[in-house]
Structures are given as structure tokens and as C-alpha cells.
Design goal:
Elements (H helix, E strand, L loop, with lengths): L1 E6 L4 E12 L2 E13 L1 H5 L6 H22 L12 H10 L6 H9 L9 E7 L3 H18 L3 E5 H10 L1 E2 L10 H6 E5 L5 E6 L4 E8 L2 E7 L5 H11 L6 H13 L40 H13 L2 H5 L1 H27 L3 E5 L6 H14 L4 E3 L3 H4 L4 H12 L20
Parallel strand pairs: 1-4, 4-5, 8-11, 11-12
Antiparallel strand pairs: 1-2, 2-3, 3-7, 6-7, 8-9, 9-10
Helix pairs in contact: 2-4, 2-5, 3-5, 6-15, 8-9, 8-10, 8-12, 9-12, 12-13
The structure holds 5'-O-[(R)-(carboxyoxy)(hydroxy)phosphoryl]adenosine and zinc ion.
Length: about 425
């Protein structure tokens, strides 16, 4: 089954075309086309994602990336298509809220053959509703004009499945390049229950899957999401948006893992060449008896320390970044370990943008092998960790396997869409 997947929940406009086969516990994916435009530079001036700007950019980007993804998948065949007046009127109405989109849509659609795809998957939530709507309306218009079924996808399910997916074992030695890692994926030999630590700009939650696609919420943040905390602390340190990668870069300098010292990665715990700092931050809720998190106090602690000691920004920025990253990682690890034990999980996955963080990945890898060597850890490659449309195609396939095909009218954007029923 060939799935065209559309992701517009936040600040990435992404479309992927993925050929999927198999069953839930044993599935295979070939990424035929994958196009993504990040809006990061546009939102940087605002220090965060600005919803109406995100919506406008998605509307501008969707047709060009659709074309790019179809072209890469070799599914773009030029041909003049007649579009009836009635169809034109329906689609114009669907796209009326995105200025300029219907013009670009008709121009493109009237000049290409309907591609050989079997379904269209689109993120319905969670995310920024104005941004989600652009993708949903675009998906509805494509489904109508090409007469394809529509599948609504939960973005977080996409993160979980992307984390469970592994590069398919290369059949020949020639296939071990980076490119093949993303082109062929498989989900198999997954031992249940699966515990997922989902960490992104909008989410921090521990979700348990005992049976395929059935979720229980084990713990969640009571205030800020961890990515939000990274972004806000970065802003306090006058670092650009998104703050996660910036904080990580500074903290790695203190650990002695700078880009120029990449060969040192693996020697966990070395503090090379820097005096230890006296900056100490709290580890909120570290020892309480739940699997919940809280990051707003940690963010406030950074704020107070900076107010009291403004020289930190000049001279000890990297030490603040280091201590902040340590505090976050310690809390994430301890709560995850608690949840692993309580649930008797056999597989742990990390998902969401923050799981691209080098220190978090390194710490979880080390601690899992030392303390839970009987539990399999799966962390997606960095490009599958942050938002993309491949993960939406994976979730779309799993939903299509269950015949969760949606009537066009029934798909609505839901900013707070939850995984657990
Ligand atoms: O999943 P994602 O791409 O979008 C959402 O659905 O929110 O996550 C974005 C978040 C941002 O807060 C960003 O700062 C954070 O992920 N992030 C990181 C890193 N890369 C992205 N946080 C820490 N370290 C990183 N390397
Ligand atoms: Zn995400």
C-alpha cells in the first residue's frame, strides 16, 4: 500500500510517500519520497512558533513539497486533467481559509495525472490548530480530486511508531550508507508492553502500549513540556530558537564532547578541561511516588539564578546549559525507570523532538544497558526524532490496517488530541 502523508502540526511542512506492507507486528516500509520545509528561521525572530505565521507558511509550502515528494517517488506524470465546475467549487470552499492555496492547488492538479497511491494520511492533532487545519484541508482537497481514502493520524502515535521502526537489515554490504537507513524501515520483533517516553515542544509523557495501538497514560508533565523548558531557558540565555539544540551544544562543550572532539563520545562522564561550576538547579519531583513531571520550577530556578548572578550569561552560559540538561535528563531517566518497573515493560522507546538530544540519548543508552539489559531500547535516528511526514505515513498505515478510514467531513483539527482513550 502506497501512502501519501501530510504533516503540518507545528513548524515543519512535510510530505512523504511511503510504500508499506505487512501486519502490525511485522511491517516493512520503503520511503519513496520525502520532502520537508522547516520554518525555524521564520519563527526565530519571535523566539517561538507564531501560529498565524506557521499557517501562512504551510499554505505557501504545501504544493511545492507535494510536487517534490511525488517527483522523488517517480509518481509525477504530467497530463492535463479536466476538473469539473462542481469539483472546483467544492475545493475552493475547502481551501477558502488559506489565501493563495487554491490557486496553487488547481494549477498543479490540473497538470498532473492522479498518482498511484492508495491512501492519504494527515495529522489531525495534537498541535497548533490553525497549522493543523491547513494540512487537513489540503488532504481533503487531494482526496476529493484524486478519489483516495483519507486517514486521520495522531502525531504522537507517529512518534511512537517512528521510534519502533528500525532500518531494515541491509541485504548487501553496499546498502549501509546513511541514505538506506531512512529509505527502508521495518517494525518487527517488538516485545510488549512498550513504554514510550514522548518528549517534545508540546508534550512530556510516559505512555504504555500493552497491545498494538492501545495506550495508557502512565505519567505526564503537570506544567511545561520539556522542549518548552529547553526553549525558554535558551531564550533566557540569549540563545536562538529552537533552544534545545543550542543548549545541547553548549552543555556538550562542558562535557568535553564538542564537535571537534567527536571521537571522545562514548567516554561518558568525562569533564575535560573545564572547572566544575557551582551552579546547582533543582530536580523537580525526582523522588515523589508518581511518574509525573514538572519543569516550570526548574525554568523559574534558572530565571532567579540569572537575576541574582547576571554575570552567568557572560561567563558561565555553558555551565548553566550543562546543569539544566543534567537536571532534565536525571528527572526523565528516574521517572522512566520507575514506569519501566511498575509496568514491567519489555521495550522502551524515546520519541519527539527532544529525543534528538545527544546527552539524553547517551544517558538512556548507558543506563539501560547497565540497569535494564533485558529491556530493548529503541531510539529513532535524529531525523526521525523531530517532526517529519514519514512517521505520519507509518501511523497512517497502522490505522489503515484497522480500517480506520475517515469520512472527509469527520476529520477536524484537535490541538489536544490524546492517545489514551
Ligand atoms: O517533536 P518536535 O519536533 O515538535 C513538537 O511536536 O513539539 O519537538 C520540538 C522540540 C523543541 O522544543 C526543540 O527545542 C526540541 O524539540 N529539540 C531539542 C533538541 N532538538 C530539538 N531539545 C533538546 N535537545 C535537542 N538536541
Ligand atoms: Zn512532534
Amino acid at each position: 500500500m502506497k501512502i501519501l502523508a501530510i504533516e503540518t502540526s507545528c513548524d515543519e511542512t512535510a510530505i512523504a510517500i511511503v510504500e508499506a506492507s505487512g501486519i502490525e507486528k511485522d511491517s516493512r516500509f520503503r520511503v519513496l519520497g520525502n520532502a520537508l520545509i522547516s520554518q525555524i528561521e521564520i519563527h526565530q525572530a519571535y523566539g517561538g512558533v507564531f501560529p498565524s505565521l506557521a499557517k501562512r507558511e504551510h499554505a505557501k509550502n504545501l504544493v511545492p513539497i507535494l510536487e517534490a515528494a511525488l517527483e522523488e517517488a517517480e509518481l509525477l506524470h504530467e497530463d492535463t486533467q479536466a476538473i469539473s465546475e462542481e469539483m472546483r467549487a467544492n475545493i475552493s470552499e475547502m481551501l477558502a481559509r488559506e489565501p493563495g492555496l487554491s490557486e496553487a492547488f488547481f494549477e498543479f492538479i490540473s497538470e498532473c495525472e492522479p498518482p498511484e497511491i492508495d491512501a492519504i494520511a494527515v495529522t489531525a492533532g495534537p498541535g497548533l490548530e490553525p497549522a493543523l487545519w491547513v494540512g487537513i484541508n489540503f488532504a481533503k482537497a487531494l482526496a476529493l480530486v484524486w478519489d483516495k481514502p483519507l486517514v486521520a493520524v495522531n502525531h504522537m502515535e507517529g512518534h511512537i511508531l517512528a521510534a519502533l521502526a528500525q532500518p531494515e537489515a541491509p541485504s548487501t554490504k553496499l546498502e549501509t550508507s546513511n541514505k538506506s537507513q531512512i529509505e527502508k524501515l521495518e517494525i518487527k520483533n517488538i516485545e510488549m508492553p512498550v513504554l514510550a517516553l514522548l518528549i517534545s515542544g508540546g508534550h512530556t509523557e510516559l505512555v504504555l502500549m500493552r497491545k498494538w495501538l492501545q495506550y495508557e497514560l502512565i505519567g505526564q508533565t503537570r506544567d511545561d513540556a520539556v522542549g518548552e523548558a529547553f526553549d525558554k531557558v535558551a531564550r533566557m540565555l540569549s540563545l536562538p530558537y529552537p533552544g534545545g539544540p543550542e543548549i545541547s551544544r553548549l552543555a556538550e562543550e562542558v562535557r568535553g564532547f564538542t564537535k571537534s572532539a567527536e571521537s571522545k563520545v562514548g567516554h561518558v562522564g568525562h569533564n575535560v578541561g573545564h572547572a566544575m561550576s557551582d551552579i546547582v538547579l533543582p530536580r523537580p519531583m525526582l523522588n515523589d511516588a508518581t511518574c509525573d513531571f514538572s519543569f516550570s520550577g526548574l525554568k523559574t530556578a534558572v530565571l532567579y539564578l540569572l537575576k541574582k548572578n547576571p554575570e552567568i550569561i557572560e561567563h558561565k552560559k555553558q555551565h548553566m546549559a550543562h546543569e539544566f540538561e543534567n537536571a532534565v535528563t536525571e528527572v526523565l531517566w528516574k521517572k522512566t525507570a520507575r514506569a519501566l518497573e511498575e509496568a514491567g515493560a519489555r521495550t522502551l522507546v524515546l520519541g519527539g523532538g527532544v529525543s534528538a538530544n545527544t546527552h539524553i540519548r547517551r544517558t538512556f543508552t548507558k543506563n539501560m544497558s547497565e540497569e535494564y539489559s533485558n529491556v530493548t531500547l529503541r531510539i529513532p535516528s535524529a531525523s526521525l526524532s523531530t517532526d517529519n511526514a514519514i512517521m505520519i505515513a507509518l501511523a497512517g498505515f497502522y490505522r489503515a490496517l484497522r480500517n480506520n478510514v475517515s469520512a472527509s467531513d469527520s476529520i477536524v483539527a484537535n490541538g489536544n488530541l490524546s492517545l489514551a482513550l
